[in-house]
Amino acid sequence: MHSAPPGTPIAPPDPSDPDYTMSTEDVATLLGTRLLQVILNNAPVETVKELLDEGAPVWFQDAEEGMTALHAAAYVRNTEVVKFLISKGAIWNAGEWIEAHLGRLGALIVVILFSG
Fold first, then answer.
1. How far apart are CA 16 and CA 20, in angstroms?
2. Per-residue pLDDT tens for 77-95?
3. For burial by CB atoms within 10 Å, which of 63, 79, 81, 113 has the most?
4. Which pTM value belongs to this model?
């Protein structure tokens, strides 16, 4: 690794560089962010399943807001996705986002899980 002189702007990695590799954390962040986006756009459960099959982490938490995939699914009231994510191990009370929304989100998930 080369050391740049102080004050030198650091260019982001170039994905077209044949030596470029993404870290596992970067891949998880990209896939997790994509997962949140499709869920917030009310994607069908099949799309969510495909993303999880591709490696999107069910446990991903948005760094800025703290929202997880399960929170997003409950927020858009997608009962099928909520049930699917829980079946895949999503934890309903995970993340910082939950602190501000615990009562409403918990009640919503209970309603979703126990509605026919």
1. 7
2. 898 999 899 899 987 766 5
3. 81
4. 0.69
